[in-house]
Each structure stands twice: as C-alpha cells, then as structure tokens.
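Form 12-C: Joint structure prediction
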Amino acid sequence: MHYEIAIEIIEYLHKKFPNASVAIAGSVANGTHKATSDIDLLFIDEQINNSYSISFKYKEVSISIFSFQKGIFYKHNYAFLYKYHNMPINYIYNANIIYDPQKVILDLKSRIEELFEKRKALKNLLISELKANIERLFKLDSKSSYEKKKKVYLIVNDIISIFFLRKQNRGINNKKDARDPFSVIKQHDTTLYSMLNECLPYKCRTYQIIKETYYNYFSINY
Amino acid sequence: MRDIEKLSNLVDLLKEESLNKCSISTENFSVQNLLTILKNRKSFNPDFFLYQFESDLIYFYENLKNNEKLEPYKKKIRKLLDLQISDLVIEETHVVLIKLCNEFLLEDSNIYTVKRLL
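Section 2 - Result
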C-alpha cells in the first residue's frame, strides 16, 4: 500500500512540476517500513527559496514532504561537519532518486560525500575546537542552577560530538543512532557511558562529575 | 477534504509564498517536537530519556525568551527547569505544554502542517 501511494504522489508531483527533483526517503526507501510508517518524500524545486516540511494524511497514510532548498546546506555546512545528528544530510544521502532532471539531488549527494571526506580530514582540528569550547564553558561563571544545567547540557553535546568524530567517523549516522547516541557510546566505551549515566539528567553533583570526567578521563582518551 | 483534492491543493501549496504563509511558528514547531518525544518515549534509551527531554525543553525555553504573549508559560516552564527533572516534573510539563498548545499555538486545523526549516 505504501509503495502504491508513494508512486501515485510522486507521479502527480512530477506531472505538475516537471523540472523539480523528487526522491523517496526514510523507511519506505530502504524497505524497513511498517503499516504505521510515514511516506517520506524529498522534493526540490528551484522556485522555492526556503526549506519546509509538509505533513498530511493521504488515504489514511501519513505523508511527509521535505521541500529542500540547497542554500540551507551551505548555510549549515560548518555545523554539519561537527554534528552527529545530521538531518537533513542523512535524509538526502539515503534518498532514492526518482526524478532529477537538473541533477540537483545527484549534485547534493556528491557535495555530502565531499563533506564526509572533509570531516575525516579535519577530524583532529574539529575535536580541538570542540575541546576548546568545552574548556571555555567550564570557565564561564553560572550562578543559577538553570544556567549550570544549560551549560552542562552544551558540554555533554560537545562530548558526544567528539566521541562520534573519534570513534564513528563514517560521516553519517542513522536516525536510530542520532536519537540514541548513548547506546553507540556503550558499545565502544563503557567507562564514558557509565560516567554520563551517573551525571545525567542534571542533579546537584552533575557539574562536578562532568568536570572530573572531562579532565581526568575524556580529554586524555579522546 | 477528499484525497484527490488534497493532491490538487498540494500543487498550490508547493510555492514559496503559500508555504511561507502556512508555516506554523517556531514555538508551535518546538512544542510539537516535545509532545512527540513524550509520545514516543519507548523509542528512547530509558537511561537518558529525562536528559534528552530536558535538553529539548531548554532549547524550547530559550526560543520563548522574546515572546511576550507566552510570558505566563515561560515562567511556568522556567520553574519546572529549576527543579531536578523526574517523572513527576515530566507530567507537570506535559500539562503545561498541552495548555500552551490549546491556548495559543494550535489555532488552526489545516489539512497540511507546514514547518519552515531554519
């Protein structure tokens, strides 16, 4: 049922927007969908200046159209180098192209591959920058518990990004790993996992634990 | 609306001007994400769910900072963020988010939900 609906919508979009690029993404593209899964479509029309996500129900199935404008790729290019949760990179890279008359999706895929190569080549530099950011955050004076909590969560996010750069530098993480990076950490580094588990979510001793973890273990091993 | 009409209306929607006009606010987008996280709690690592939810709640709160219309809700969320997160705090947060949605955010019931990605 999902395939029939996907094809129906894709053909309709192609008929109405013959110059636009259309691809199928997500679980329907890789064949792992369930009856309750969304149909994810990638749509690129150069007449649309911004990126949008459009959701609706069609024949009782949830449809999600990601109308992408490549400017967002260049705008966040720098952030994509660091991030372990790399939507929309993951989404576009794994999408199966159905129509691409101007070779826009193909071009984006090749730029994403370049980004992966850059991420690998610049790995040590990116890690140094993230570490410098963590150390800057440790030096910031935070008076309220909310400010401390916010700071700790930024530090944890940078620690996870460094972990993925160092241990999982394949350039792209699937949706499951991005949603649950901790299970990936557990597979590679049980010490780090236990430390993060001990200090999260934020409680009164968290700041001290994360600081000790960073200086006595993490900055040495990563 | 019949399914065939949904497709023909989609053609009118897939234009910059219409998409921009129909986009929900960033606040609405963030609240929906938070409610989705709560709904899909089972798909998260249980050891870190509270951290992940609170982390997204901080992001939401930071985005609310300049929205005067939502001032009473900002105060409520800030109070919740000052506490140590627990299942009880999550329950209270859920109630606040639902009220926020009902009162301010989900004023329309369009067939299409359009989010502008920044």
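Section 3 - Comments
The longest helix of chain A spans residues 145-167. The CA atoms of residues 138 and 211 of chain A lie 8 Å apart.
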